[in-house]
Design a protein that fits this description.
The chain is about 40% helix and about 20% strand. By secondary structure, the protein is of the alpha/beta class. The strands form 2 sheets. The protein has a 6-stranded mixed sheet with strand order 6-7-8-3-9-10, sandwiched between helices. It binds adenosine-5'-triphosphate (ATP) and magnesium ion.
Length: about 300
């Protein structure tokens, strides 16, 4: 397997002394989809700023396809890794949408015709055809998020890093973003690395999850991570609603080997179970059922009502 990103012994402190990253080590392989989760202030954005060289001279080893990032020329770097920032206003600074999306390809030294082709392709991917002449600054938040993504897609990076791509989007835009990112990974083979708090979207976008809280505290499949409620509690994380609901169904005697992580998976699992049991699901209430349910609720709803 080709190592797309390899980070070893990475530390970072801001100039005011805030230690944001401690001894980070991780490897992300080409074609993987990886999600980084962690509480506010965990260092996710700081970590991502290392992946496109915004933070120069890293205190540690950051490699992209085997090359040390600090040794790479900017044209080379932006072709390998594209980072879509958390706040689109940090990314868009040109007068028009066209200029913002063309900025990267122009900097890569592409000719005018190729630049135009790339801009059109990127805007069409994000569903913003016809927006070329609009002033980026005046667009809605959701539209700006799309332009910011297009501005990175136009460089056709091999690795796409997205910081909170679904935050503050309406449900349709959120669903569009999730399916666009999945397609970029599955169809175009782009390695995707995403920071997000949106646990209901996470299973679609993650083969593997890293829990970051200054350090890498855990790594595993979404199911591994969501099954460990004390890990979730310690790092201000939560499990998808569907997963929690099936934990409760377990207390009522419903058994399934793999608890579903998404609505679609839940429908599949239920259908399979019902088909396999001649149309019935057997549920029951025993003496200890309520106690078990309270335990699940306490474990998985640890953030409710300001609980610690
Ligand atoms: N420019 C800065 N100067 C000083 N400290 C900073 C600066 N930027 C971030 N920090 C601090 O570094 C730590 C990590 O912040 P970072 O933005 O990387 O977290 P995050 O995981 O992205 O959080 P969020 O989920 O809120 O986006 C925080 O304690 C933050 O206050
Ligand atoms: Mg952040």
């Amino acid at each position: 397997m080709v190592e797309a990103i390899k980070v070893e012994d990475l530390n970072y402190s801001y100039s005011d002394g805030t230690k944001a990253l401690e001894d980070i080590g991780l490897t992300i392989y080409e074609g993987e989809k990886v999600v980084v989760v962690g509480p506010n202030g965990a260092g996710k954005t700081t970590f991502f700023l290392h992946l496109n060289g915004t933070i120069k001279n890293p205190q540690g080893d950051v490699r992209v396809f085997g090359k040390r990032i600090s040794d790479m020329k900017i044209e080379d770097r932006i072709h390998q890794v594209g980072v879509v920032f958390q706040d689109p206003d940090d990314q868009l600074f040109m007068p028009t949408v066209f200029d913002d999306v063309a900025f990267g390809p122009i900097n890569m030294g592409l000719d005018e015709e190729e630049v135009e082709k790339r801009v059109n392709k990127a805007l069409s991917k994000v569903g913003l055809e016809g927006f070329e002449k609009k002033v980026s600054h005046n667009l809605s938040y959701g539209q700006k998020k799309r332009v910011a993504l297009a501005a990175v897609l136009s460089m056709e990076p091999k690795v796409l890093v997205l910081d909170e791509p679904t935050a503050n989007l309406d449900p349709k835009s959120r669903a569009d973003f999730i399916s666009l990112i999945s397609d970029l990974n599955e169809r175009d083979g782009i390695t995707t690395i995403i920071a997000m708090h949106d646990v209901n979207a996470l299973p679609t976008l993650a083969d593997r999850v890293y829990v970051l809280n200054k350090r890498i505290v855990a790594e595993g499949s979404p199911r591994d991570i969501f099954s460990d409620w004390s890990l979730l509690k310690d790092n201000s994380l939560e499990a998808p609603d569907v997963f929690k609901l099936f934990k409760v169904l377990n207390c009522f005697g419903y058994s399934s080997d793999d608890l579903p992580l998404s609505f679609d998976e839940a429908v599949e699992v239920l259908t399979r179970t019902i088909e396999g049991t001649e149309g019935h699901i057997h549920l029951h209430i025993h003496e200890h059922t309520h106690k078990e349910i309270s335990h699940v609720m306490d474990s998985y709803n640890h953030h409710r009502n300001g609980k610690k």
